[in-house]
Amino acid sequence: MIAWLSNSVLAVGVWTHLSSSCRNSTGPCPADPSSNSRFGRSGARRQRVQRSATGGGNGQGKDDLENYVEVKIESVRVSQGASVVYLRVVGSEGVIPVHIGENESNALLREINKQRQVRPLTHDLMKNMLQEVGYRVTKVRVTDIIANTYYARVHVARAGGEGEVDVDARPSDAINLAVRFGAPVYIAKKIAESAAPAPIEQYPASSESHAEIVRSVRETLANYEDPTIMYQLQKELAVKEERFEDAQSFQESIVHEMTHNRLLRLVVAMESALADGRYEEAAHLRDEYKKAVQQSQTADRKAL
Question: FRET partner for 289 with CA separation of 20 to 30 A, picked from 112, 185, 244, 258?
Fold first, then answer.
């Protein structure tokens, strides 16, 4: 995703600069990169990068969204190892569940909860790359669902909407970028027709008051030592000392923790539930977290 996005943005950015420079020239101007054969031919598989209607091309520009409806992120829920982002159709009670990966859900929750990292993670890097070449995400479209797999496109353009292109993407990456740029998200009407009210997960009634749950969960979170923080600091030091292989190793450790560390995932889910006022869910996740800690400690003692 990063390679396609950066290469596509850079290609279009260079083409825009060169074409504007040669308009008054008698020589040939560079070809539009979106028309290059390496991006696909008529009848071939869907193009990775397309020029939008604002600059000619695929007919899906900002003025051609009649087949789409806008959606907002209702919530991101992590339960029993599964991550789901619920997209609410604007103006209705219907939501659409989109299953996403563990790494992407952690990145999305961290951005929604405004948890800043010492160093940029993948989607932060994508945002920084786009901004450095003068582009921003203008909108995201979830275009289709085939064999239970959603497809999306990310629209990027220069300030004022010039040189807009749209890039093939997974919805999880597209939504992460939309949140970081504050860009609207649209979904095809044919998909939105299947929207239903968000499922209400039933958690055992707690004898604790909401204030007690908030205090207890915050104490639990305060006692958690995030393993990615040390890796981030070690990676930053390795980069400064030009130990790039070590820096890569630390980055891999960060990704592994965010993807496989059950305690970290429970912590992120607790923070999200607390921020959204889902107090019974937060209490349930807190209890799961404590049980997981006890199981880990028991396993460590047996290993000695």
Answer: 112
